[in-house]
Amino acid sequence: MNTSTERGNELLCMIRDSYEKMHQRNSYNWIMILLGFPVHLFLFIYFVWKKRDRTYASLIEEVKESLIAEGYKEKLMLEFKDQLIRKYAFFGQQVSEADLTKQAETLTEERFHKTVEARANEALLQKGKTKLTYSNFFSSLITKPLFFFVTLIPGLLMYFFIILYSNPFVKYVFERLLITVFVVIGVVILVFSILYISPFEPAANIIGETATAEQIAAFNHLHGLDLPYLSQLWNAITGILTFDLGASYAGNEDVIASIMKKFPITLTIALLSLVMAVVIAVPIGIISSTRPNSFFDYTFMFIALLGLSVPNFWQGLIFILNFSIKLQWLPATYSPQNWLSVIMPVIVLGTALTASVSRMTRSSMLEVINEDYIITAKAKGLNKRQVLWKHAVGNAMIPIVTVIGLLFGGMLGGAAVTEKVFNISGIGSYIVDKQFIPDIPSILGGVVYIAITISLINVIIDILYAYLDPRIRSKIKQY
Amino acid sequence: MKTQKDIEKKKVLKLSPEYTQSSFTWITSLTLTMIFLLNCYDFTTQAIKPFVFSAFLAYAVFTLIQVIITLMIRRDLLTTGAVRKSTRRLGFVQLLSIFTGNVFVVSFAFSLMKERKTPEYTFAVYMVLTQFFIISISALNLFKPYVSDTFLIAMIILVTIMVFQIVATILVAKYVTHNRTERWMTWIAIPLLLTAVTGNFFALLLGYGLLMKGRSTDQSRIDKWDTMWGKITRNTTSILGLFFIIFMFSISVCSIFTFDYSLAIENNYGALLLEPSIMYPMGTDDFGRDLFSRIVFGARISLIVGFVSTIVPAIIGGALGAFAGYYGHRTDNIVMRLLDVLYAVPGILLAIAIIAAFGANITNLIIALSVGSIPTYARTMRANVLMVSNYQFVDSARALGSSDFSIIFRQVIPNSLAPMIVKATLTIGSAVIATSSLSYLGLGVEPHIPEWGNILKLGSTYLETNSYLAIYPGLAIIALVLSFNFLGDGLRDAMDPKLD
What is the mean pLDDT of chain B? Predict the structure, then answer.
């Protein structure tokens, strides 16, 4: 019994501390008021009613009068005027006397007001009281269990929000996810708007040139194309979020089902390419950086640059020409039963990634090797290998993982070309096939779900970082 | 003790620009020789191709001389610490390789011949090289059944320009030093600037350099020019990249007069799918169109799309990034969050969506590629502006009463441009790849226009029988993209203050 009340008290104290911290940020303050609106409404009325005890206001009047009696205002006025005259003299500008006085007056008023408030607060402190503001009032109430239980139901959302934000790491994850949701909705709006303002008529393309006006109208009605922009947009957003985009224009198949059927192969090939890139590129980058400007370094960096410059589809064609047509080692087109057929697409898709990662690894390593802590490690008497593996590689990998995350996104996008070359029916070639109509729900679904996948991957990488990298961790803890 | 000496020796060799360039040259030259060797034997007919074989022999000879020169330079450096005059004279022998088209050996020969190389000398040399290669490529048209009406007059003008440029090069080699030149040299500079209308931008760079060194009294400006371009011209790969880009640009301009467009677009049923020959240097496609002319005309589109779709987002993204970075807080948050939406969609998918909506043609292609790359430029610019706007010169400008507008455009942007230029150079290459990839998918340039991606798409259907239709345009794309990447790397090294 005793421990549970203690724990309850702890929770209330935590809520209070967190409330006080969050109160300093204007935006959080508004969100808290919004979420706990009924609680705040009643409390504020009560607060105003209670505040009639006007010690603070009378104190301010007192301080004001005493300062004016001292002649503080006139002194300030003279000071500011003098400063202004000297400032204008320096810049060689001409200002009329009236203007000067006016400027000095505003400055004086500002400063006077500030001084009065500061003095009044000081006097309050001396009397052992603080200025009663709404937030102080609220945080003093919050620790009282009775108040907490009464307001629990109407203020549930607000309390949940405060508890969520009391842990900086949870707060970071939550905000990151929230941003992702907004980005995804933004992507839907963007892609949908682009397709909406398209001058093409899908109806005419599908029914053919002989389509009558009634047929076109019926088609548009069937797919909701006759609705106004905003309601179409709303349908698209809810469709994306509830995984229901209806049927495609051509072939009348369920869009989500066909996208889900095509996603696995694209992801598999992209992931295999990623694995290939990391396994090849990271060691090469590290070795190159340990022997900068050697023959080995030049050769590999030249090959890497070449890898960045080769268009995917050309590389694919050359591979087919050599390995399928001339040597007949590997099948030219992809078939799910034959695992050999996946080798060429993986290499082609992964080439550019391998090249960038190895270049990035090298430059990141070169940067790290010249850092002070590496010199310290060497000065401690560690041997080369220990310095390299314990101190250099770990730190050099931090930016590389982010870059891999970003490049992986580009790779999913670029998969369309590779899929076309090797005749793989993945999501990329699906979008390309559908764009000639243009089949709006299919294109929208394909593009947005790829964007969502990429965003989620980047979120996971960011969160992992926040967990692993001490620098980011300490940054998160600062409010 | 011995190891100490070894390290010093290694250092001497590494610091010598001639030795490193010479090693680079023989390796690349050997690679080219090997490629010719592998291609000179036809396995199906068991016969040697005489043309490729003679090319192999010529390349092999110059590669051999190059290896010998490399060894001689090495010996000179280790014994006397400098390259001897007699070794430098061998450059004249290597100069002959210009007739084999081996640009690596020629450029090395020029740099070996002159001991103190100013950036102007390098510009002059590459200017002449560009002109020479343009004339020889255009001259291949002489073997065609007919040439364009303007061919003769254009060739005469080109040759005259080249003669003038050779004279200018000799004068530059004699009278230009690192910090000044004779005043009368500026009279050569002006006609040189005029010859840049052929698209030969080396003439532009050279003319500008001469004008500045001859007329300007501002020594710091000359020094800045000399160090910056000195770094780029000493970097063999980046200057070769620049050479190839300018060459491509120049050939796009000159081909208007020296190439016949009808050979590239009109069907010729008498010459379907011909193997490469002297009349059709890269063969003909399934409509009898000359592949060589098509690739030359395709360069124009790749360059235009590449440049425009880089400059447009660089300006838009740069401006957005600069405002976001300078004003910070709410402006920053709003701009960058909106751009995050664009950033979340992979560039090529966004391009596909835009083209799906508005149709496939060059304008839409440029718009589609531009929109996708706005956020990366904005991010680069923002990061730089955040750094630069904390410098003291910005504070002092503010203290002097400059408006925000003038601070942004006079102080902040000029000082954060360097990374943007590097980024732009590197992304032109990817724009070229994206253009041809989209054309390959049938989503880029209209199919009847000779564009590298379109040519490749057509060639891919004849992969088994006439594979050269797919190989040559691909090589053109790679060469151009590789050049942009090399130039971008060189620019980064030249502009990075950390490497000073």
Answer: 87
User: Which residue has 């909701």 as its token pair?
Assistant: A224
| Chain A residues within 8 A of B338 when measuring between CB atoms | 186
- Pairing relation of β-strands B41-42 and B47-48? antiparallel
Q: What distance in Å separates the CA atoms of residue A187 and residue A194, rounded to the nearest whole number?
A: 11
Radius of gyration in angstroms for the set of CA atoms belonging to chain B, rounded to a whole number:
25
CA atoms within 13 A on the CB side of A240: 28
The distance of Cα A158 from the centroid of its chain, to the nearest Å, equals 23
Q: Do you find a cis peptide bond into A438, omega within 30 degrees of 0?
A: yes
Look at residue B206 in the predicted model and tell me its pLDDT.
92
Residues of A in contact with B341 (CB under 8 A): 183, 186-187, 189-190
The whole-number pLDDT of residue B367 equals 93
Q: Which two tokens stand for residue A42?
A: 């009643």
Hey, what are A217's tokens?
A: 């109208």
Which residue type sits at B175? Y
Q: Could you please report the per-residue DSSP string of A172-232?
A: HHHHHHHHHHHHHHHHHHHHHHHHHT-S--HHHHHH-TT--HHHHHHHHHHTTTTS-HHHH
Neighbours of B344 (CB within 10 A): 23
Contacts of A232 (CB under 8 A, 6+ apart): A192, A196, A224, A225
The C-alpha of A437 sits at a distance from chain B's nearest C-alpha, in angstroms, of 8
Helix (H, G, I), strand (E, B) or coil at B47: strand
- Residue found under tokens 């390995």: A323
| Percentage, residues of chain A above pLDDT 90 | 13
Is B210 in contact with B120 (CB distance < 8 Å)? yes
User: Which positions in chain A touch B401 (Cβ < 8 Å)?
Assistant: 91
Which of A310, A320, A432 shows the shortest C-beta gap to B352?
A432
**A427 with A255: CB under 8 angstroms?**
no
Q: Which residues pair with B284 in a beta bridge?
A: B290
CA–CA separation, A205 and A223 (whole Å): 14
Q: Using CA of residue B250, residue B251, residue B255, residue B256, what is the dihedral sign? A: negative
Q: What Å distances lie between residue A209 and A115, A203, A215, CA to CA?
A: 81, 10, 11
Prediction pTM value: 0.85
pLDDT digits (tens, 9 = 90+) for B424-457: 998 899 899 999 999 988 888 888 888 998 999 8
Choose among A306, A416, A454: nearest Cβ to B344.
A454
Q: Which residues pair with B47 in a beta bridge?
A: B42
Question: DSSP code of B290?
Answer: B
Question: B5-26: b or e for each residue (b if 16 or more CB lie within 10 Å)?
Answer: eeeeeeeeeeebebbbbbbbbb
Which residue in A352, A350, A345 sits closest to A308, CA to CA? A352
Average pLDDT over residues B306-311: 93
What secondary structure letter does DSSP report for B176? Answer: B
Q: Give the position of tokens 């961790």.
A: A473
ipTM (interface predicted TM): 0.87
Would you call B274 exposed, middle or buried from its count of C-beta atoms within 10 A (0-12, 13-18, 19+)? Answer: middle
Assigned token pair, A112 = 């006077």
pLDDT of residue B331: 86
Instruction: Give the Cα separation of B205 and A42 in Å (integer).
Output: 76
